[in-house]
Structures are given as structure tokens and as C-alpha cells.
Automatic annotation (TrEMBL):
Primary location group: membrane
The keyword Repeat belongs to this UniProt entry's keyword annotation: yes
Organism the protein comes from: Falcunculus frontatus (Eastern shriketit)
Alphabetically ordered keywords of this record: Calcium, Membrane, Repeat
InterPro entries: Cadherin, Cadherin-like_dom, Cadherin-like_sf
Entry's Gene Ontology molecular function annotations: beta-catenin binding; cadherin binding; calcium ion binding
Localization per record: Membrane
Gene name linked to the record: Cdhr5
One of the GO biological process terms: homophilic cell adhesion via plasma membrane adhesion molecules
Cellular component GO terms held in the UniProt record: adherens junction; catenin complex
Lineage: Eukaryota, Metazoa, Chordata, Craniata, Vertebrata
Keyword presence, Transferase: no
Domain Cadherin span(s) in chain numbering: 18-129, 145-249
Residues in coiled coil: none
Record-given protein name: CDHR5 protein
């Protein structure tokens, strides 16, 4: 008697990842749809020769939607949404491999692989002049104020000019790169009166100014290793008459009178003369007509 025996495969093996733990460095400016981890590195095997079904999740809050797999049977991980280093600089993904579909009611064996993604900051932003203020609480955009200073007419200053709200200074906002900044004057420097130190940003005079004109300089800050990353700030330099004397008040003490019950913004009157508003005045010998 010839008997044919067929051995049925029992689902008694779990899928196995060749590399259950992976780490990938991903540049911030990686283009959407770029493969991050290849299919061959993530494919699981099953001794039962079952079809493997994959699912990808993230364990870090607010990092959903950035990474995805190509399909339920293709575990290649790709970038699905543009990255922003200021929002997060790392995340952890979990890749599940099952030998039955997620919706199946059959007994299912599962394996898990952990993929750590480290975001590397890219050179994406131009220099910022300081001080600056973030635009609507967006830390990726910082708006600087124009600089302002004064020089005396017909007088040569050998020291760096004092400016408001502070000295010319710019930084690379991609702070993990922190490229060196180079300064130059690109406009408004009539007769080459001023020069700027390429390394420090200090503004100095090359010659005296003989007319009471103002200068509106454009100072450019460029990244040393990437000249396409630059910013321009305005520096207004007013030419004024030299001030040798401080202002002084015409009186050492002013006496005033107020009346009970007067409304807000009512005048304070001179003491002893309730019909004349109190006026406090100062003079300056340098500017007798002002």
C-alpha cells in the first residue's frame, strides 16, 4: 500500500530582522521622498516562508508624518515631509514585521526593529545681525534693527565708532555650523570715508567729513565658507557739529502749583503765577540757536 503524507507548515516561527537596531543621520535639507533606510536593511525573514507585513510608528511626540514606509510589504523608509532642525533634532521609529495582516484574526507572530533618526543641521539660513527679534515667535526668522551713529564735522576719529543699538555684529543662525562671518561695506560709502574691519565688524573713519551730510551705509555680513549666504544691514551715520559743552537748565530749581480736582493732562502752573504753565527749559552753548 502506497501512502502519500503531506506535512502542513505550522506558523511556529516569528519574523526576524537582520538588524533590529539602526541609527541614521539625516541632513536637515534632505529632499522629500528621499530614501532614508533601504529595503534590504530592513526586510525581515520568516522560517515559515510567510509573507511579511510591515507597519511604521514613531515614539516621539510631534514627529508623526515625517517618515513613512513605501508599502505594507516594502519596509524602505523615506522622508515624507520636509525637516526643520528647530522643531526637533531626533526621533525614534518602530518598525513592526508581522506574518499575518494587521486585520487578520489568526495567531500572528511579530518582530520589532528600532530606527533612531538623528537630524543634522544644514546651512539653510543667512547671517543674523544682532540684536534682533524673532518674527511672531518664529525662531527661524530674526529681524534686526538698523544701526546708527554720529561723527563730528571736520574731526578725525581713530577709534571704532560707537553705534546704537550696539556694535555691528552678525552670527550664523545655523549654530551647530557657526560659520565665520566676514564684513564689508557694499553701498553708501561716499568718498570712501568709512571702512569696516572684515573680522570684527568695527566701523572706523578713513578721512574727515567737511560737510554736515549724513551717510546711509549698507554693510554686508557673509559666511566665510558660503558666499551665497549673506545679509545686509543699514548704518546711518550723522555728521554733527562737535559738542564741547553739556546742556544746562536755565534754573537750578523749578517750582510749580497744581490744583485739586483738575482732570488728567491738565497743566502744572508756575508757583505764584497760577495763569502761566510751568515750562522747564535747557540750553547748550554748542547750539545757541536750538
Amino acid at each position: 500500500l502506497e501512502i502519500l503524507v503531506t506535512i502542513l507548515n505550522e506558523n511556529d516561527n516569528s519574523p526576524v530582522f537582520a538588524q533590529p537596531n539602526l541609527t541614521r543621520d539625516v541632513p536637515e535639507d534632505t529632499e522629500v521622498d528621499t530614501a532614508i533606510v533601504a529595503r534590504g536593511e530592513l526586510s525581515a525573514t520568516d522560517a515559515d516562508l510567510d509573507t511579511i507585513y510591515y507597519e511604521l510608528t514613531t515614539t516621539v511626540q510631534d514627529t508623526d508624518g515625517y517618515f513613512a514606509i513605501r508599502g505594507v510589504n516594502n519596509p524602505e523608509i523615506y522622508l515624507q515631509k520636509a525637516l526643520d532642525y528647530d522643531k526637533f533634532n531626533s526621533t525614534m521609529l518602530l518598525l513592526y514585521a508581522r506574518d499575518r495582516p494587521v486585520t487578520s484574526s489568526d495567531d500572528t507572530n511579530t518582530a520589532t526593529a528600532t530606527i533612531t533618526i538623528v537630524i543634522k543641521q544644514s546651512d539653510t539660513r543667512a547671517p543674523w545681525f544682532l540684536p534682533c527679534n524673532y518674527l511672531r515667535n518664529d525662531t527661524s526668522i530674526c529681524i534686526g534693527s538698523p544701526y546708527a551713529g554720529r561723527v563730528n564735522i571736520s574731526e578725525m576719529s581713530t577709534d571704532p565708532l560707537l553705534l546704537e543699538p550696539g556694535p555691528i555684529y552678525a552670527v550664523d543662525p545655523d549654530y551647530t555650523i557657526s560659520d565665520r562671518i566676514v564684513y564689508s561695506i557694499v553701498g553708501g560709502n561716499t568718498d570712501e570715508v568709512f571702512s569696516v574691519d572684515a573680522d570684527t565688524g568695527n566701523l572706523t573713519m578713513n578721512k574727515i567729513v567737511t560737510s554736515p551730510d549724513s551717510f546711509l551705509l549698507q554693510v554686508m555680513a557673509t559666511q566665510a565658507s558660503n558666499i551665497r549666504k549673506y545679509s545686509v544691514a543699514t548704518v546711518e551715520i550723522k555728521v554733527i557739529n562737535k559738542s564741547d559743552y553739556p546742556p544746562y537748565f536755565e534754573k537750578g530749581v523749578y517750582n510749580g502749583t497744581v490744583f485739586v480736582g483738575l482732570p488728567w493732562r491738565s497743566f502744572v502752573y508756575q508757583a505764584g503765577d497760577p495763569s502761566t504753565p510751568l515750562v522747564i527749559t535747557a540750553m547748550d552753548k554748542d547750539f545757541p540757536d536750538v
